[in-house]
Write a structure and sequence with these properties.
By secondary structure, the protein is mostly helical. The protein is 55% helix and 3% strand. A hairpin with a 3-residue loop joins strand 1 and strand 2. The protein is elongated, with a radius of gyration of 21 Å.
Amino acid sequence: MRGRPAPAILYRNPGAPWRRRPRLSEGGSGVPADSGDGPAAHPHRGLLGQVANAIGLRIVTGNLPPGSVLPNEAALGAELAVSRTVLREAIKVLGAKGLVEARPRTGTRVLPRNRWNMLDPDVLAWQVAGRSGWRFAEDLLEVRRIIEPAAAALAAERARPADIAAMAEAFRDMERVSDDLRASIEPDIRFHTAILSATGNELLLPLGALIGTALAATFRLTTLRPGAVGDSLPWHRAVLDAIRCGDAAGASAAMGFLLARTHDDNYDVAGDGARDEGAHDEGAAEDGSMAGRAGEPARTGRTGT
């Protein structure tokens, strides 16, 4: 619905490896607590969310590969120091995400990757934690480069004053925290999800979760480079200005520039290991990197999101 504020996108830190801890009655559980290191909050709060997180992360990182059977309830409950009731509810949560399937007599089996709900916020977050930062960031960015330029064009045609105000507020917040990469993630997510909201297409709104996870993955690659957020601001401003002016072609081009630069900058920051890993992306400049072409915003730095 047009004019609706962009939805809050919440993520959970995937947590630490499993450790045996006392049961709740003894002051704790055997699942990892959220460390608070990163933008995160599991949609299923409390112990249930922690158990689902612990098992889900183990599946996505390959410690429980597709086709494998989870330990029986007694063994897994003892390992995590939780009750069978909590464990069963956590398995239901993972089943809804397409990760596992419980069958009578055969137990709970990990499903093939093509059955997983890859756009689920938790599955995305677990993959950020478990896969190569470069490769997964590139997978996410590839989807964004397909969707977001077109979304920006629609936003330029359809945005209402409230939508423009939401984008402008998010941009101002990005400027305010431009010296803090971690703090910038939240307003950056708001900026991009406000654009999706402004399209008036409700099917695009869930993609805000993908964008948020992409920004978190980018954070893992660029956290050591000072000034990364400030460097991206001219690119974001170009998108905002084009949408504000109702320039659909300009908004699409500006978003394309922004995402193409993100690809190039991730590649630069990730180093030689990423280049070897990302050989399939060789020639990315020819398929969309617009650096140096007519209409490109002035480049003050490198990383854009």
